[in-house]
Amino acid sequence: MNDAQIVLILASIVAQSAPLMLAVTGETITERVGVINLSLDGTMLLTAMAGFVAALQARKWLEPMGIEGNTLPVLIGFLVAALIGALAALLVAWGSARLKQDQVAIGFVLTLLLADLANFLGQTFTRVPGPSVKHLPIPVLRDLPLIGPVFFDHDLMIYGIFLTVGLTWWWMYHTQPGLQLRGVGERPESAFGRGVPISLLRYLYTGIGGAMVGVAGAAYSLNIKLGWSDNHILGIGWIALAVVIFGGWHPLRGVLGAFLYGATKAAATVLQQTFPEIPVVLFNTFQWLLMLGVLLLVGSKAIKQLVETAPPAIQRPLAAALRIAPPRSLGRVIGDD
Amino acid sequence: MENALKRIWPAVPVILALFSTTLLIMAFGSNPILTYGAFIEGAFGTEDSVLNTLAFWIPLLLCATGLLVTFTAGLWNIGVEGQLVMGAIGASWVAIAVAGPNPSIPAWIIIPLEILAAMAAGALWAALCAVLKTRGGIHEIFGGVALNNLAVIFTNYLISNPWQPPRGGSFTKTERFLDTALIPVVGTSRFSVLSLVLVIVALVLIGLALRGSSWGLRLKAMGKNLKAAFIQGVPSEREAITGMMVAGALAGLAGAVRVLSWYDSLRQSIGGGIGFLAVLIVLLAGTQPILTAFIALVFSALLNGGTTVQLRTQLHSALSGVIQGALVLFVLLFGDYNQVFRKKSETTPVETAHE
Amino acid sequence: MHVELRDIHKHFGPLRANDGISLTFEPGHIYGILGENGAGKSTLMKILSGYQAPTSGQILLNQQPANFASPSDALRRGVGMLYQDPLDFPPMRVIENYQLAYDNKIMLPLRQREEDLIAFGKRFGFTLDTRAYVDTMTMGERQQMELLRLLALGAELLILDEPTTGISAEQKTALFDAMRRLAQEEQKTIILVSHKLEEVQELCDEVSVLRKGKWVGSHPIPCPTAEMVRLMFGEELPRAERVSCRVEKTVLKLDKMAVHTYHLNIDNISLDIHEGEVLGLAGLEGSGQQLLIKGCAGLLPLYRGRVMLDDSPVEGQRSPFFWLPGLSGIVFSGGFAAMIVRLLLGQITGIAAAGELTLAALLAGAIWLVGTIIISWTSQSTYHAFQQRGGAYVPAERLEEALIPGLSLTEHMALATSGKSMLVNWKDAQDEIARRIQQFNIKGQPQTLVDKLSGGNQQRAMLALMKSPLRLLLLEHPTRGLDVTSANWMWELFQERLKEGTAIIFVSADLDELLERSDRIAVFSGGVMSRMVNTTDTTVDELGHMIGGGES
Lengths: 337, 355, 552
Hints:
Helix content of chain C: 25-40%
CATH architecture of chain B: Orthogonal Bundle
Radius of gyration of chain B: 22 Å
Oligomer: heterotrimer
Distance between the termini of chain B: 28 Å
Number of strands of chain C: 21
Strand content of chain C: 15-25%
CATH topology of chain B: ABC transporter involved in vitamin B12 uptake, BtuC
Number of helices of chain C: 19
Distance between the termini of chain C: 43 Å
Structural class of chain B: mainly alpha
């Protein structure tokens, strides 16, 4: 394998991981305000379909008006996807806040329902070719050695995802509203006592997070895995949920998790080509084994004991690095202790 | 007036759900009456279809019965789908590795062996999920989802490699099992009396155990508050593992029924979404066995009718799933009268602020 | 700021938490609101601070009527409340806590705020580490932080809700000094809500007493204690006579016990307790008492040392199959080694080797899984062994840690006896719990769900479910949140147990209770246990200082 091939592989890892990064960032925000959106898998299927179909239809409507090209239809597709993603997340939040139902239950039912809905509504559009995002290398940066082709030879959508993730991190940790966001998730009563409109912020950030998840879903059908078919990207939502946990509810670490996943997929492809004798299906196990592995790393008692017996000086930074605790208002939903 | 509304309230979300799906059907240009008629015809139209609806109902109810146990214990056993698949694999192994080379062994030896293998396989797969939770800190939903996928991948591996049909072709199923390995069915349907007996026995046993045994009480305590149950003397790790294993065994049994009577070989789609459907059923029915059986029958009818619907109206068979999901969602969200019409003054300020 | 409460009513359904209360507060003075638990003090203050709206009545600030939409709204008008459990954000830093909701700008002027905060704190003699995480701070420090925040945001009226629970003597002095300074020098209005007579006498200029939701009287300080007691209770409190039941036989022996956790360690604890003896554990919350108790009960693993109950160590039952996971490791290593050897000898290719390794891993995994299942079936946790040997542990959080919400009393009874048979005899369980309901005077039916019982009745239910006889009873804050009558009644129950030979270790924040009920007291401070003192040899003052970490 020569250098050019390695660069290609790295670039494809970046591209493949981008939608997952976005979904993870979005769900991180949602969970940071105390809402766990288990409907992720179904939502992303639905938004993948809806985004694609919307773009397709938009192109059909715009052509007679003289507007050519893919950019506007694709944009419309993403907007529709964002809207649907936000609505799904808001439904989970509303159902649990107003109607006191279990977030896990609503999320789970929704994930099945939305997946079926995606297959049902998308039936006329399976395997239909459609618009996709245009390739757009950044002129000067693209020629930098190594990092140039890996990071700057993609398209507007992927650059947008990088920007969004960076913006989210900055927002959460370097602004006043971000501080409020974290406060709402850590201890709603205190936030309420300080006049933070927790209800408003909860819905706002759940909506924003859901919108990001929606766009991530469409990012597949409009960029990475073009088009639509039955159960197009099944399973990716669950991976995203696991990566959020692995990421310790911190946007940057979630990005790391997404890259890890992308790298695993790439490794699987490479290994498959190098060892064609190994049955293909075995490589499909990688992503699930990885999911179990990362969750073990952050969840197992053995690791916790290791931290507890560490010398006090490094205990706190070690625990922070392994980030074992979810935001307090979320812990009651998925935590047992 | 308010009392009357309260009494008929349970029906309201159901009506709302059906109303929404009717709109959906109409949006696709189909006649709703025709569509619902196709459902009913597909499920109950002929003698065979009635038997087939029952035949599908059986593994569904087996899984749901197992889920009654885990839900009582407060566990989200989403992995039941994978446990069913592993059970099917277990049964298939006996069929292929034991019965295949020894066609002279009679069915009354093979079939119990297959059932045992299936239940053991399902139980162990469930135990794995439980241990990942208790020792590894992995929430059972994630463990379940991962193990589900791994089970399906394993199935695909088996079908395309060691158990591939000798005549080649596309690897979507194994070769048909020997007659001695299959559960006898009634006529041209897929219904088997043996399976019916098994599911009734299972439902009755589990229903009684959950209500009247110490084990059931311990599970209930765990489900309400795990920490306090431990303080009260309940060995929570043991009961969690055992509860999951019971559910896994029943799911495995469902897998055996699927692969030995509904089908005649191991296939890629052996799961059929039955596990997830069972979770929906138990979400709807709570921990009541009779209601669970009834709702399972309704869901089975919906799913079976779905194929006829696809033939008649060209609507995607996922419509069944949409109806089932909508039903559960609406009931979950709006089923509790008191919650829907809760007045604001009855809440504390922080609660109100959460709305 | 002149503050007036006019005819405040607060009803929760039929319960009248506040029943027509009218009070006036002038600037430059410190007022005490005194009353029993459940008298309505907290409710009244929650209304005044904007957390709740009254059912009827008015609040007037400087003669202007005021309707608060929320606590932060009230703070904007100058009313700030320091809660018993300060509403802060434990996983975040002091400076972030201080800054949160400060204003609505985008950027975070953290460094500026830090300097402001430190300077501000100096004015009142508070020194704060602005970079510290709140969950590592003591209660007293958290209070100081919150006070500074309230003052910085312009509080003119400060309400302190039971502020001295859980803080050291030194911190209390600092707090009271600051309050006096605020009142006299800055003309703030201070309200102290408490159920402790001495504190009210020490700090306040005037005291108002609430009883059962009504105002029963106000009196300038100095006020004779008897008068305050009369207002609070309406009658003289009977002082229980204490007879020690301690006999010679040792029940519990701790031998160099150590328990280590993420937050705190305790080391080298050695003591012995006799039958019928009561050991009280004093100290600030989180100083190690809970670790000792949980270590004895087997809920936390011992880092070192032993716990001996009736001369034999409290240990869980290790499974006879404990070696199974080890076997799986051996199988895997064996397979791995064999594979390496064959690979090196060229007997198999790389792919086949990987395949064999996978198989070995799967086999080892299967053995490990089966082993874990069997072990879970054949082992017993230390805590359950402790229970079997006659130990009982009663946690502080009744509903979250001990009783099971959603289960009825009958079900709890059946659960307590569930080890004996497979089937539940519901009739027997119901009869038995009905008997105990009578005996323990619980206001409830066998079929009542425990979460529907009042706090006091839940406590009684917990005691009613305990086995008899017991060897060792471990209690965390047994009378927290209970009124005096219930607390006394509870200790009468414990007395009966003591006569049977049970030993009791209890944790309490109430020094009076510790002095009144214990034979011996040990003080925990920062993870270190003091020597044990005989109750008859010590005083509240001495204990208070030991708790603060002072000399003993």
